[in-house]
Write a structure and sequence with these properties.
Strand content: 15-25%
Mean pLDDT: 97
Radius of gyration: 18 Å
Number of helices: 12
Structural class: alpha/beta
Shape: globular
Number of strands: 8
Helix content: 40-55%
Length: about 290
Amino acid sequence: MTKTETVTTEDGVRLWAQRSGRGTTPLVLCHGGPGLWDMFDDVAALLGDLATVIRWDQRGCGRSQPCDGPWTVERFVADLDAVRRHFGLDRTALLGHSWGAQLALHHALAHPDRVGTLIYVSGTGIGPDTDWHGAYKENQSARLGERPERLARWRELTETPGRDQAQEREWAVLHWSAEFPDADRSTEHAERMADPWFGINAACNKQLNAEARKVCGTPGLYAACEALDVPALIVDGARDIRPRSAVDSLERALPRVTRVVLPEAGHLPWVEDPRGFREAVAAGLGLG
C-alpha cells in the first residue's frame, strides 16, 4: 500500500513524503539535485518487497512547501531526521543518490546511531571538486555530442537568460539525457525524469553546491568519515559521466565499506541494470 503524508519540520516547513512497500526493513531514500524532487518511482517498485520505502521531497522542492530555505547541509540533515521521526523510526537504512548520497552521508556522520546502513549511489566522494568536475564537463559534452543537434540546442538554452518553464524543462531533459549511456533511449529516460515537472529550485542548487565545494577535501571531513562506524555500500555505474575515481576518496576513508560497480550502468544505475542494482542493495541491507 502507498500512503502520502506531510512531514512538518521543527521550523514549520511542510515536506511531501510517501511510504510504500511491504518489507520489514525501513529504507529512506534521498533524491538528487540539489533543487530537484524525488524521482524514485522505479526504485520504490524495485525494492518494495525488500523494504518499507520512504520517499520525500527536500525543502522548497517538488511537492514540498515553497520556502526561502535556509539552504544548508545542516538544515537538510535536520529535515531528513524529521522524516525519520515522523515515521517513528529509531534507526533506518538510508539510500542517497547523487547529491542525495552526500546528504545521506552527512546525516550518518551527524547521527550514526540512527543509521543502520548507508547506501551511497552515484555520489562524487569527499575530495575537492577538482578531482572530477573538469572531466565530468568534458564527458557530458561528449555524450550530448553523440547527437549534434541535441548538443547545439542544449548550448543555446544554456546561454538563454531568463528561460521560461517550458524552456527550463527542455533544457533539463537535454541535460539529463547525458546521464544515460544508450543514445537511442536517453531522451526517453530523461523525459520520464521530467514527468511530472515541478521546476528546479535554483537558489537551493546554487547555495548547497557552494557549501559542498567548501567542505569537500577538508581534513575534518576525511577524519569524520574514517571514524564512521556504520556499514556502508557504494554503488557506481561504470558509465556515469562523473569519473568514478572521485569516489575512491570516500571508499578509502570509510572503515566498513563494500563497493559494487555495475559495468553497463550510468548515473541512474537502476535504469540500465535493475537486477544488478537490486542485488547490490539487497546485499547491503543484509537481505541478499
